């Protein structure tokens, strides 16, 4: 052994004999009916909603709150039932949703054209970035007076206002998704001969669909809020021009607020929430499951 070699330390060998059976727990077991039921996404969210309703009822019933400030949930529920069957609330909801769908679909179409132009040409990219920098910070409801001058007191003015709420969030998210598509995927698409619109439809949109879907959800939420606000500002101006005397959901809230029918006001607000929850958990949830969830692009 060399003179300066490091010393070797030998340890005594030992053997442990007291080990029991390894306990790894349940590797796989069948879930009970209660576990399967409680794991449902709709059940978990419904539990949260019911809990909030219970807190609302207890707080207003035993907290000494005036009914003119915050009615109980039971009074609000009774007003909602009465409005649905006696005051044409369903028709008013349909009036609002009909206008919303028109503005939403047109807005998505405009956003798609702007984004396609942006990924195809340098001028389109400069145009989209300039317009979004100018107009995206501008509140949509601020355009309502101008829309009333241009389109009159009717649904066209509201649709124009909704376009501003939908176009920019959808276009921004769509453009971000397109720019995030990897160069490898782009090269594969070009090797298959994809050009122009086919390149966008068959490659960019599927690859960027998580971002597009996020923009659609944001655009929907902005449009729904803008619609209710526009109907509140319009007041009687949004009443059906055919003389039926029925406006939208915002008009229902506005009219009952003027009459100090506070339970009906909260019934209208609760309806706004219910419509939003329904669209989010029925329309967009199923769209996610059938697209990005099935494709393995997101964990749903």
Description:
By secondary structure, this protein is mainly α. The protein is 70% helix and 0% strand. Helix 6 crosses helix 7. It starts with 32 loop residues before the first helix and ends in a 7-residue tail after the last helix.
The biggest sheet, with number of strands, parallel, antiparallel or mixed sense and barrel status, is: none
Task: Give the name of the CATH architecture.
Answer: Orthogonal Bundle
Shape: flat
As for the CATH topology, it is MetI-like fold
CATH superfamily: MetI-like
Average residue pLDDT: 82
Structural class label:
mainly alpha
Cα-atom Rg, whole angstroms?
A: 29 Å
The level 1 CATH classification is: Mainly Alpha
Tell me which oligomeric state these chains represent.
Answer: single chain
Strand content: under 5%
Helix content: over 70%
What's the domain count?
1
Number of helical stretches of at least 4 residues: 12
Distance between the termini: 65 Å
Return the string of H and E elements.
HHHHHHHHHHHH
List the uncertain runs: 236-244
Q: What's the count of strands?
A: 0
């Amino acid at each position: 052994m060399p003179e300066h070699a490091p010393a070797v330390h030998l340890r005594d060998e030992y053997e442990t004999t007291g080990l029991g059976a390894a306990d790894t727990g349940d590797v796989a077991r069948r879930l009970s009916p209660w576990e399967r039921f409680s794991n449902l996404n709709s059940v978990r969210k419904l539990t949260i909603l019911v809990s909030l309703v219970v807190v609302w009822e207890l707080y207003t019933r035993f907290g000494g709150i005036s009914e003119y400030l915050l009615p109980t949930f039971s009074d609000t529920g009774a007003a909602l039932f009465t409005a649905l069957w006696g005051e044409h609330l369903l028709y008013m909801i349909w009036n609002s949703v009909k206008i919303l769908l028109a503005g939403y679909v047109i807005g998505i179409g405009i956003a798609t054209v702007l984004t396609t132009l942006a990924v195809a040409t340098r001028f389109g990219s400069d145009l989209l970035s300039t317009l979004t920098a100018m107009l995206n910070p501008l509140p949509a409801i601020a355009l309502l007076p101008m829309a009333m001058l241009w389109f009159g007191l009717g649904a066209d003015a509201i649709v124009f206002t909704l376009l501003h709420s939908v176009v920019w969030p959808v276009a921004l998210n769509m453009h971000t998704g397109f720019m995030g598509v990897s160069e490898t995927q782009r090269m594969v698409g070009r090797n298959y001969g994809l050009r122009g619109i086919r390149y966008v439809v068959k490659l960019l949109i599927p690859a960027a669909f998580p971002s597009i879907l996020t923009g659609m959800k944001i655009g929907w939420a902005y449009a729904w809020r803008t619609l209710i606000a526009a109907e509140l500002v319009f007041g009687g101006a949004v009443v059906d021009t055919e003389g039926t005397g029925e406006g939208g959901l915002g008009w229902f809230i506005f009219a009952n607020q003027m009459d100090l029918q506070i339970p009906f006001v909260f019934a209208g607000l609760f309806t706004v929430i219910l419509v939003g929850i329904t669209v989010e958990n029925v329309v967009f949830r199923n769209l996610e499951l059938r697209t990005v969830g099935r494709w393995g692009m997101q964990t749903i």
